[in-house]
Design brief:
Radius of gyration of chain B: 29 Å
Helix content of chain B: 25-40%
Number of domains of chain B: 5
Strand order of the largest sheet of chain B: 14-13-25-24-23-15-16
Number of strands of chain C: 4
Number of helices of chain C: 8
Structural class of chain B: alpha/beta
Strand content of chain B: 15-25%
CATH class of the largest domain in chain B: Alpha Beta
Chains: A alpha/beta (about 450), B alpha/beta (about 900), C alpha+beta (about 180)
CATH architecture of the largest domain in chain B: 3-Layer(aba) Sandwich
CATH topology of the largest domain in chain B: Rossmann fold
CATH class of the largest domain in chain C: Alpha Beta
Strand content of chain C: 5-15%
Bound molecules: flavin mononucleotide, iron/sulfur cluster, FE2/S2 (inorganic) cluster
Strand order of the largest sheet of chain C: 2-1-3-4
Structural class of chain C: alpha+beta
Oligomer: heterotrimer
Shape of chain B: globular
Number of helices of chain B: 29
Largest sheet of chain C: 4 strands, mixed
Number of strands of chain B: 36
C-alpha cells in the first residue's frame, strides 16, 4: 500500500493550519487551495476496507477522551456483504466536559476540515448518512458548519454519486438540547432518536446495533479532523508528528489563572510545562498547585508532574488520564474543596438519572462537600468521601459519567487532604468561600 | 465437574458448585437457587436493565483469581465454569451503599404507607445490611398527581427503579405514564394530572417495590396487610380465569391482587379483576331470601330454609317434570350441576340465548377437534403470528390482549438473538429491533387499543368478517378465489396472506362477542389452514362470554337455551315453574317477558337483584364467588377452583341451598336418583365427587384442587398471616372471650393463622410469604424456577386435554338477520368497565367507564341524515333507547354499535338485531 | 325511557386533544422538514421542541400536545423528552436569557462575583425572570469557552472575560431593548 505523498514534510500542525488570527472562518476556496477535500478524494479512490486499514495503521487514537483507535473501532462494523442496509456515522461535537473548548475552536474556524473527515469516516464504514451532533450553545459553530455543508453540497463534494462505485452521503446537523450526558456515545444515539439521553447497555456495541438499531460509528470532532491529513499525507508522516508513543498532533488547552488561556495544536507528547508556558504562565501573585490534565473528569496531578509528556500512556501511568487534553489549573488562591464541589455539582446536575450510584450518590457527595465547605464537616466525612468515590467508581455505574466525577475528588483527597482537614479544623473555608451550591432541592434553578 | 449437559452448566457460587440452566442471567439463577440477592429494577416479566445496581456480585476469572470484579447479576449471562460470590466484601459493601444513597430521600413513612408490611424496599434494605443513616441533608418533597380512582401516587417514596414505566409503557403498551425530569429529580407520572387509561394500571401497585403507586381503593378503607384474611380465588369477570388472591377484614372484601399462575395470568391481572370486587360488599346485593305467596302483591323476607321449603312445595305441587332450571355461565360448575340434578337433565337449560348457545356448542366442537390446540395465555406469548378476528380483546378478554402484546415482540427477540442478545436483555432487544413486530392481524368492526401493535387492522361488519376469514383460510390453503369479494376485501386478504406466509407458530383468536357461530367455525378453519401451512398443530383461542361459559357448555352438551325453554313452556298444558341461577332473563332475550308470563312460579338464586329477581316470587340470596367455593372452567378448558375468603357468611352457598332443596324434595316423596344423590351431599367435596361420577372430562374433578381433608403436618392452610393481629380484640364489642375459631368443612383452608406459610399446594396459596420476603416478590421462593411453574405443579386441570373427543350435538343454525327499510344492523360495542351487573357496583370502575354513545361510520351516518353528537333513538321490539351518536371513521359501514351497559334498554343479549334508528328532533322531557 | 347513564369519566379522562395550542405555519413547516431526516417521526421530537421554543421562547403544555399530535405520540411521551433537556424551557423565560457559566474554569475566574452582582442588580434569584419579562438568569454548565472565562451567553451571543460591570451593562442593554419594543 502506498503510505502517502512524500511532499508533506512541511506540514507539522495540520489541524490548525487554516485557523486565522482574526477568528474568521475558512471558506471552501481557502480550504481547497491547500489540499482541501483531496484526502476524501483519495479515500474515495480506495476501497472502504483499505481506508479502514489505513486509519488503523496510522493508529489514530480517539480524541474524545478514551483514546480508542479509530480504525479499530470502524473495523467492528460488519461488512456490507454480511449485514446489508443502512448504517450511520456520527460526529460527536457535544463538547460539554468542563474546561474543554478544543472542538469548538476547530469547528468555528475550519468547518470543512470536519466535514471532510466525517465524509471519509462515512465512506470507510459505507454509511450513507452522517450526523453532526453539536452541543446546544455552539450557535456560531452551527451557523458556520451548516454553511460549509451547503457549500460542499453545492460543490458536489457531498451528496449523490461521489465516486465510481456510487457512494452517496447525506450530512445532517443535529443541535443538542443541552445535556453533558449526550456526549456519551450511546446516550448521544438515544438523543438522536429523539429520546431521553440515557446511555445504552453494551454489548451490543453501536458498531453492530446503534442508531435506529443499525451499525453506527461515533467519533469525536477532533478525531475526525485528523482524517483528511492522514489520508493525504500518509501514515508515516502522521507517525512522525508525535513525540512519544502516540501519533499525530493534539489540540491542547489551558484555562484557569494563567496570563494567556487558550488552545494550541502541538505534537502529541509535548510536556505539561511547555503547554503551560504557551499559556503565558501563571498570573501575577498566584502559584500553581495542581492541574486536571484533560478536563473536569480527570484526576488531579501536581507540580511534580509538570515535566510529564501529555500523551495517553504517560499521563495514565501518573494516575490520571489525558482525557480531552485541555487542562484546568488549580492555583493557591483557589479553594480545592470549592473547586471539587463545583465539579461534583456539575456531574450531579448532569447525571441522566438512570443508575443509582450516580443519580443518588453524587448528590450525597455534594451534601458532604457543601457541609465541609461551610465549615460543618467532620473528620469521618473524609473517610466516607473516599468510600463514596469507590462506590461510584469504574464498573459500578451504568456509564462512565459518575466514575469520571470521582476522579477529581479522589485525587484531591490524595494530594490536598490538608485543605479538607483545614476546613474541618477551622470550621470554615480558609479561602473565605461560602458554599456556592445551596441548591434549593425543590426548586431547580431552571425552568423545567 | 461435567461440561455442558443438556443445556445445563456448572457454576460456582461462594465456592459451591451448582448445575443450572444455561441462557439465563445470574440474578434469576441465584434467586432460583433460593439465594437472597437484592434487586429493584429487574422484574421476572420485564427483564433486566441494570439501572438500580442493587444486584451486584463479585465475578472471578478463574479459581486463581482472588480479587475478581464486580458485575450486576441481572446483566450477566451464566456461563459454564463461572465463579461468583454474593458474600464478597466489595459486592456486599456496594449493595449496602446503594441502599444508603437510595434511602437518602426516602421519607421513612412506613407506618402510614400503603406498602407497609409487604414492602420490597423494606426487605431489601434489611437484606443489604444498611441500618445507620449518615445523610445529613434535607429530603425532597414532590407533588403527587391525581391518577384517577384506581391508582394512588406518593412520589416521595420513589427510589427511581423505573419499573413502573417499564411495565406501563413497555409491557402493557400504555402511553400516559412516563418518566419526567432527570438526575435526582426524575419523576414518574403524567404530563398532567388525570386518570391512567391503561386497563392494567392497577398492576403498578404490585410492580412498584415501594409505596409510590398504590391501590387507591384499598387505601380508601385501609387494612394492614398482615391483618387481611386471604383466600385463593379465580376472577369471575371474564372467561380467562385469572388467578387472584382476595383479602378481607371483618366480613368486607378489601382487595384483590394477582395470584401467580405460570400458564394463565403470570404476574398481572386487569383492572376489572382488581377493582371489580365491590359487588360482594354492596348494600345493593341480595342478602335474604324472599317469598311472595300466590295472590300476594309483595315479597316478604324469610330465612333461606323457609324459602327453599317453599320451592320444594312448588316442586311437589307441580310435579318434577314441570319444573325447569336455567343455569348460568357465571355460576360455578358445581352450582350448575346441582341445579341440573334438581330439575333433571331434560329440564335443564343454559342461561344463554340462541346465539350464545350455538357459539358455545361450536366452540366446544372446534376445540375438541384432534388437530386443534387451544393455548394458555402463556403459550399465546409464543405465537409468532396472530390473527384476531371479531374480538376487541382489551374489552372482552383483557389479559389475553396483554399476552398478544408480548407475542408481538417475538420477531424482535429472534432478531436480537441473531446478534447474540438474550431475551431478558430488555433495552438492547428493544433498541435493536426498533419498531419491528411480529405480524398481528386485527379484524374488528372498529379501531381497538391493539391497533398500535397490529401490522394490519381491518375494520369490517360481522358478515364481511366471515367472508374475510373464509377467503383467507382458502388463500392459505392455496385455493384463493377472490370472486364475490369486493376489491378492497380482496386486497386485504392478500395482505394478510403475505404477512402470515413465514409463520411457524401461528394463532387464531376469535370469540363470543362477534355473536356469530359461523365466525367461530371459520376461525377454526383458518387456524387449521395456518396449522397445515406451518406444519404444526392449529392454535386457536376463543374469548368466551363469561367466567364459566366453558363449564356450562360441558354440562349442557345437548344444548338447550332460553329460546327453547320459552317455546316449551308456551306449549305446556300444565303450569310450570322455573328456577333461575344467577341470570337476568331480561338482559338475555327479548322473549323474557313472554316467558315469565307463562310461568306459574319463578324462583331466582342470585347474589344481586335484577329485573328477573324483581319478577320472581321466590328469591334465594346466595353467596358471591368470594363467599363460597366452586370451580370455573376457563376459555382453554382449564378447571380452576376458588375458595371462600369469609368466615362469617351473610348468605349461603348456592350449591348448599340446592343440596338442601334436594333433601327437602326427597322428604316429600320419591324422586330421581340425581336428586337423591345430591341430597346426600353435605360437604363441598361430596358434591365434587358427584360431579366426577359423570366421568369423561369430569372424571378427575376431585383433583382440581386438594380436598378438605388435606393437611400439612396435621394442620390446615391458614387464611390469615402468621402475624395477624387483634385476633382476640377484633370482635371484642360482641364478646370479650376469644371465640372458637370458625370451622370450614368445605376446604383445606383454615380461618386462623395456625399452619405453615410455605410448601402449600399451588391451588391453595392464599398469599405468598417467605422469611425475609414480605412483599409479593416472595413468589420467587414458590416457583420451581423463576417465571416457571409453582413448586406444587400448576393448579387446575385442562379438561379438553383429558377427554378430547366429546360427543357433541351440531350447532344450531342461526337465521340471518333481515334489515328492513329504515333499519340498520346493530351490534354490541363492549366496554370493560362497569358494563355488567357486578362491576357496575364498583365506584372506581364506574368512574372509568366511558361516556355512552352509539357509534357509526360517517358515510353511514350521512346516508341516514345523522351528524356527530346528534341524539338518536334506537328501537328494538318494545325497547327504545335515546343516546348520542358518535361518528367514527375507523368503523365498518352500515353498522351501528351500541354500548354494552347493564340495565340498558337494549342489551348485549338482544343483539345483533335490525333496529330502527331515528334522530331525536325535539327535546324530550 | 331509561336515562343515559351519565359518568364522570370525562372529568377524569379529559381528552388532551381539546387542549392543543396548534402549531403555527412556521413551526409546522420546520418540523415537517426535520421529520424527513429520520426513519420515524418520533425521532424529530427534540428538533420539534427546539423549533417551537425558537418561535415562542418556551414550550407550553398546549404546544407539547400539538407536537405530540404531529409526531403521533402522547403528550406524556413528548414531555418525558422535553423535561430531560436543559435547554428546553417548560416555563416562560424573559426575552433575553443570560446563561451564566457556573462550571469550573469560570468558577475559578469569578463566577460567584458575577452571579452575585447580577442577581443584586436585577433583584431576582438565579432561575428567575425580571418583572418586566426582559431577562432570565440561568446558571449553565461549561459553555466551552474556558479560555475566555468567565463567560455567559446573552441571548445567542457569547460574552467573554466578563466583569460584574460588563455583565450588568449587558443586562441593562437587554432591559432597554425590551422597553423599546
Ligand atoms: C459522560 C460522558 C461524556 C462524554 N462527552 C463527550 C463529548 O462531549 N465529546 C466527545 O467527543 N466524547 C465524549 N465522550 C466520549 C464518547 O463516549 C466517545 O467515547 C467518543 O465520542 C468516541 O470518540 P473518539 O473515539 O473519536 O474519541 C463522553 C463520554 C462520557 C462517558
Ligand atoms: S452513571 Fe448512570 S445515572 Fe450517571 S449518567 Fe451514567 S447512566 Fe446516567
Ligand atoms: S436488579 Fe440488577 S441492576 Fe437492578
Amino acid at each position: 500500500m502506498n503510505h502517502g505523498q512524500s511532499s508533506s514534510q512541511a506540514v507539522t500542525l495540520p489541524l490548525s493550519q487554516h485557523i486565522k488570527a482574526d477568528g474568521s472562518v475558512t471558506s471552501l476556496a481557502e480550504y481547497q487551495a491547500n489540499y482541501g477535500y483531496q484526502g476524501l478524494a483519495k479515500a474515495l479512490s480506495m476501497s472502504p476496507s483499505e481506508v479502514v486499514d489505513w486509519v488503523k495503521n496510522a493508529n489514530l487514537r480517539g480524541r474524545g477522551g478514551a483514546g480508542f483507535s479509530a480504525g479499530l473501532k470502524w473495523s467492528f462494523v460488519p461488512p456490507l456483504e454480511k449485514l446489508p442496509g443502512q448504517r450511520y456515522v456520527i460526529c460527536n461535537a457535544d463538547e460539554m466536559e468542563p474546561g474543554t473548548f478544543k472542538d469548538r475552536w476547530l469547528m468555528e474556524h475550519d468547518p470543512h476540515q470536519l466535514i471532510e473527515g466525517l465524509a471519509i469516516a462515512a465512506y470507510a464504514v459505507q454509511a450513507d448518512t452522517a450526523f453532526i451532533f453539536l452541543r446546544a450553545d455552539y450557535d456560531l459553530c452551527a451557523e458556520r458548519l451548516q454553511n460549509a455543508i451547503d457549500e460542499a453540497l453545492a460543490a458536489g463534494l457531498l451528496g449523490e454519486q461521489l465516486n465510481e462505485a456510487g457512494f452517496s452521503l447525506t450530512m445532517l446537523m443535529h443541535t443538542s438540547a443541552g445535556r453533558y450526558i449526550c456526549g456519551e456515545e450511546t446516550a448521544l444515539i438515544n438523543s438522536l432518536e429523539g429520546k431521553r439521553a440515557n446511555p445504552r447497555f453494551k454489548p451490543p456495541f453501536p458498531q453492530v446495533s446503534g442508531l435506529f438499531g443499525r451499525p453506527t460509528v461515533v467519533n469525536n470532532a477532533e478525531t475526525l479532523c485528523n482524517l483528511p491529513h492522514i489520508l493525504y499525507h500518509g501514515i508515516d508522516w502522521f507517525a512522525d508528528l508525535g513525540l512519544g508513543d502516540d501519533n499525530g498532533t493534539k489540540i491542547y488547552g489551558v484555562s484557569g489563572r494563567v496570563n494567556n488561556p487558550g488552545c494550541w495544536e502541538l505534537p502529541i507528547g509535548t510536556t505539561v510545562a511547555d503547554i503551560i508556558a504557551l499559556a503565558g504562565g501563571m498570573q501575577e501573585g498566584v502559584q500553581l498547585r495542581g492541574f486536571l490534565p484533560g478536563g473536569g473528569s480527570t484526576d488531579f496531578l501536581t507540580r511534580d508532574h509538570l515535566g510529564l509528556a501529555m500523551d495517553y500512556g504517560t499521563i495514565q501511568a501518573a494516575g490520571s488520564r489525558m482525557g480531552t487534553g485541555t487542562m484546568i489549573l488549580l492555583d493557591d488562591q483557589t479553594c480545592v474543596v470549592g473547586m471539587v464541589l463545583n465539579l461534583i455539582q456539575f456531574f450531579a446536575q448532569e447525571s441522566c438519572g438512570w443508575c443509582t450510584p450516580c443519580r443518588n450518590g453524587l448528590p450525597f457527595i455534594r451534601q458532604i462537600l457543601t457541609d465541609l465547605e461551610a465549615g460543618l464537616g467532620e473528620h469521618a466525612d473524609l473517610e466516607q468521601l473516599l468510600q463514596l468515590c469507590g462506590y461510584i467508581g469504574i464498573g459500578n455505574t451504568f456509564c462512565a459519567l459518575a466514575p469520571g466525577a470521582a476522579e477529581p475528588l479522589q485525587s484531591a483527597l490524595k494530594y490536598f487532604r490538608d485543605d479538607f482537614v483545614a476546613h474541618i479544623e477551622q470550621g470554615c473555608c480558609p479561602h473565605g468561600n461560602s458554599p456556592q451550591v445551596d441548591m434549593d432541592l425543590e426548586k431547580e434553578a431552571r425552568p423545567i | 465437574m461435567n461440561a455442558t449437559i443438556d443445556n445445563l452448566v456448572t457454576i460456582y457460587i461462594d465456592g459451591s458448585a451448582y448445575q443450572v440452566k444455561a441462557g439465563g442471567h445470574l440474578l434469576e439463577t441465584c434467586l432460583g437457587l433460593a439465594k437472597d440477592l437484592p434487586y429493584f429494577c429487574w422484574h421476572p416479566a420485564l427483564g433486566s436493565v441494570g439501572s438500580c445496581r442493587q444486584c451486584a456480585v463479585q465475578l472471578y476469572q478463574d479459581a486463581e483469581d482472588q480479587r475478581g470484579r464486580m458485575v450486576m447479576a441481572c446483566m450477566t449471562p451464566v456461563a459454564e465454569g463461572m465463579r461468583v460470590s454474593l458474600s464478597a466484601t466489595m459486592a456486599s459493601q456496594f449493595r449496602k451503599q446503594c441502599i444508603e444513597v437510595t434511602m437518602a430521600n426516602h421519607p421513612h413513612d412506613c407506618p402510614v404507607c400503603e406498602e407497609g408490611g409487604e414492602c420490597h424496599l423494606q426487605d431489601m434494605t434489611l437484606q443489604s445490611g444498611h441500618t445507620q443513616r449518615r445523610h445529613k441533608g434535607h429530603k425532597k418533597t414532590y407533588h403527587n398527581q391525581d391518577l384517577g380512582p384506581c391508582v394512588g401516587h406518593e412520589m416521595n417514596r420513589c427510589i427511581s427503579c423505573y419499573r413502573c414505566v417499564r411495565f406501563y409503557q413497555d409491557y402493557a403498551g400504555g402511553d400516559d405514564l412516563v418518566v419526567l425530569g432527570s438526575r435526582e429529580n426524575v419523576y414518574f407520572g403524567r404530563h398532567q394530572d388525570g386518570c391512567l387509561t391503561s386497563h392494567f394500571s392497577g398492576n403498578l401497585a404490585e410492580v412498584c417495590p415501594t409505596g409510590v403507586f398504590y391501590d387507591k381503593v384499598v387505601s380508601d378503607s385501609y387494612t394492614r396487610k398482615w391483618d387481611l384474611q386471604s383466600a385463593p380465588s379465580i376472577c369471575s369477570h371474564c372467561s380467562l380465569g385469572c388467578n387472584v388472591s382476595v383479602g378481607e377484614r371483618q366480613g368486607q372484601v378489601k382487595r384483590v391482587t394477582n395470584r401467580y399462575h405460570s400458564q394463565v395470568n403470570g404476574y398481572f391481572i386487569c383492572d376489572k379483576g382488581r377493582y371489580g370486587f365491590a359487588h360482594s360488599n354492596s348494600d345493593q346485593g341480595l342478602y335474604q331470601a324472599q317469598v311472595q305467596p300466590l295472590g300476594d302483591t309483595k315479597k316478604v323476607t324469610c330465612d333461606t330454609l323457609h324459602g327453599l321449603d317453599y320451592v320444594a312445595q312448588i316442586m311437589n305441587e307441580l310435579g318434577a317434570e314441570n319444573v325447569f332450571g336455567l343455569g348460568s355461565p357465571r355460576a360455578s360448575v358445581e352450582e350448575n350441576f346441582a341445579l341440573q340434578s334438581v330439575v333433571g337433565k331434560a329440564n335443564f337449560y343454559a342461561g344463554h340465548n340462541a346465539i350464545q348457545d350455538a357459539i358455545q356448542t361450536q366452540v366446544l366442537h372446534q376445540l375438541t377437534q384432534p388437530d386443534i390446540y387451544t393455548p394458555s395465555l402463556k403459550q399465546i406469548e409464543q405465537a409468532d403470528a396472530i390473527v384476531i378476528i371479531g374480538e376487541d380483546l382489551l374489552h372482552t378478554a383483557p389479559r389475553m390482549a396483554l399476552s398478544v402484546r408480548q407475542a408481538s415482540r417475538n420477531l424482535g427477540f429472534a432478531k436480537a438473538a441473531a446478534i447474540g442478545i438474550p431475551k431478558w436483555q430488555d433495552e438492547p432487544v428493544r433498541i435493536h429491533t426498533q419498531n419491528q413486530l411480529s405480524p398481528i392481524i386485527s379484524v374488528t368492526s372498529a379501531a381497538t387499543d391493539l391497533d398500535d401493535i397490529s401490522s394490519q387492522c381491518v375494520h369490517l361488519a360481522p358478515n364481511d368478517m366471515c367472508d374475510f376469514a373464509r377467503a383467507l383460510a382458502s388463500a392459505v390453503e392455496g385455493q384463493f378465489d377472490g370472486s364475490g369479494l369486493s376489491a378492497k376485501l380482496h386486497e386485504q386478504v392478500q395482505q394478510s396472506l403475505a404477512l402470515l406466509a413465514g409463520a411457524k407458530r401461528p394463532l387464531v383468536i376469535s370469540g363470543a362477542s362477534s355473536q356469530s357461530p359461523e365466525l367461530i367455525d371459520l376461525a377454526a378453519q383458518l387456524a387449521l389452514a395456518l396449522g397445515r401451512q406451518s406444519g404444526s398443530e392449529a392454535w386457536l383461542s376463543y374469548a368466551l362470554e363469561a367466567a364459566n361459559s366453558m363449564g356450562l357448555g360441558l354440562l349442557n352438551k345437548d344444548p338447550k337455551h332460553v329460546g327453547d325453554l320459552a317455546l316449551r313452556v308456551q306449549q305446556q298444558s300444565t303450569p310450570s315453574a322455573l328456577i333461575v341461577l344467577q341470570t337476568d332473563l331480561f338482559a338475555l332475550s327479548t322473549q323474557a317477558a313472554a316467558l315469565c308470563e307463562n310461568l306459574r312460579h319463578l324462583v331466582v338464586l342470585d347474589q344481586l337483584p335484577s329485573a328477573t329477581s324483581d319478577q320472581a316470587d321466590v328469591v334465594i340470596a346466595c353467596a358471591s364467588s368470594f363467599e363460597t367455593e366452586g370451580t370455573y372452567v376457563n376459555n382453554e378448558g382449564r378447571a380452576q377452583r376458588y375458595f371462600s375468603v369469609h368466615d362469617k357468611q351473610s348468605r349461603p352457598d348456592a350449591w348448599r341451598s340446592l343440596t338442601n332443596l334436594a333433601a327437602m324434595v326427597i322428604q316429600a316423596g320419591p324422586c330421581s336418583d340425581a336428586v337423591t344423590q345430591l341430597a346426600s351431599c353435605t360437604k363441598f367435596d361430596d358434591l365434587c365427587h358427584l360431579v366426577s361420577q359423570q366421568g369423561g372430562e369430569f372424571a378427575h374433578w376431585c383433583d382440581v384442587a386438594p380436598s378438605a381433608d388435606f393437611r400439612i403436618a396435621g394442620m390446615k392452610i391458614p387464611r390469615q398471616t402468621h402475624r395477624a393481629s387483634g385476633r382476640t380484640s377484633l370482635y371484642a364489642n360482641e364478646n370479650v372471650s376469644e371465640s372458637k375459631q370458625p370451622e370450614d368443612a368445605d376446604s383445606a383452608l383454615g380461618f386462623t393463622m395456625e399452619g405453615t406459610p410455605i410448601n402449600k399446594p399451588s391451588a391453595l396459596i392464599p398469599q405468598v410469604w417467605s422469611p425475609g420476603w414480605n412483599s409479593n416478590e416472595a413468589i420467587n421462593k414458590f416457583q420451581q424456577e423463576i417465571n416457571g411453574p409453582l413448586k406444587g405443579g400448576e393448579a387446575g386441570l385442562r379438561l379438553l386435554d383429558i377427554s378430547p373427543n366429546l360427543p357433541l350435538a351440531a350447532a344450531a343454525l342461526i337465521p340471518s338477520i333481515t334489515i328492513g327499510a329504515g333499519q340498520i344492523l346493530a351490534h354490541t360495542q363492549n366496554h370493560l368497565f362497569a358494563s355488567d351487573r357486578a362491576s357496575a357496583l364498583s365506584a372506581a370502575l364506574k368512574q372509568r367507564s366511558t361516556v355512552i354513545s352509539a357509534r357509526m361510520h360517517p358515510d353511514t351516518a350521512a346516508a341516514m341524515g345523522l351528524v356527530d353528537g346528534a341524539e338518536v333513538c334506537v328501537a328494538l321490539a318494545q325497547a327504545q333507547w335515546l343516546l348520542p351518536l358518535t361518528v367514527d371513521a375507523s368503523m365498518a359501514v352500515d353498522l351501528l354499535l351500541l354500548p354494552s351497559q347493564y340495565q340498558a334498554p337494549i342489551s348485549a343479549g338482544h343483539l345483533p338485531a335490525a333496529v330502527n334508528l331515528s334522530a331525536v328532533t325535539q327535546e324530550v322531557n | 325511557m331509561t336515562p343515559i347513564i351519565a359518568t364522570d369519566a370525562a372529568a377524569h379522562c379529559a381528552d388532551w386533544r381539546l387542549q392543543i395550542e396548534p402549531l403555527n405555519v412556521q413551526e409546522e413547516t420546520a418540523i415537517a422538514a426535520e421529520i424527513t431526516h429520520y426513519p420515524q417521526p418520533q425521532a424529530a421530537t427534540i428538533e420539534a421542541l427546539k423549533i417551537v421554543q425558537q418561535q415562542q421562547g418556551w414550550v407550553s403544555d398546549g404546544k407539547i400536545k400539538a407536537i405530540a399530535q404531529r409526531l403521533q405520540m402522547s403528550p406524556d411521551e413528548v414531555d418525558s423528552v422535553a423535561t430531560f433537556y436543559n435547554k428546553i424551557y417548560r416555563q416562560p423565560v424573559g426575552s433575553t436569557v443570560i446563561s451564566l457559566c457556573d462550571s469550573v474554569s469560570c468558577w475559578i475566574m469569578g463566577y460567584q462575583g458575577l452571579a452575585q452582582a447580577l442577581t443584586q442588580e436585577l433583584n431576582i434569584a438565579l432561575g428567575e425572570t425580571t418583572a418586566d419579562g426582559a431577562v432570565t438568569i440561568l446558571p449553565t454548565p461549561c459553555l466551552g469557552a474556558c479560555d475566555h472565562a468567565p463567560v455567559a451567553m446573552v441571548g445567542d451571543q457569547r460574552a467573554h472575560k466578563l466583569t460584574p460591570a460588563s455583565l450588568i451593562e449587558l443586562a441593562r442593554l437587554a432591559q432597554e431593548q425590551e422597553q423599546s419594543l
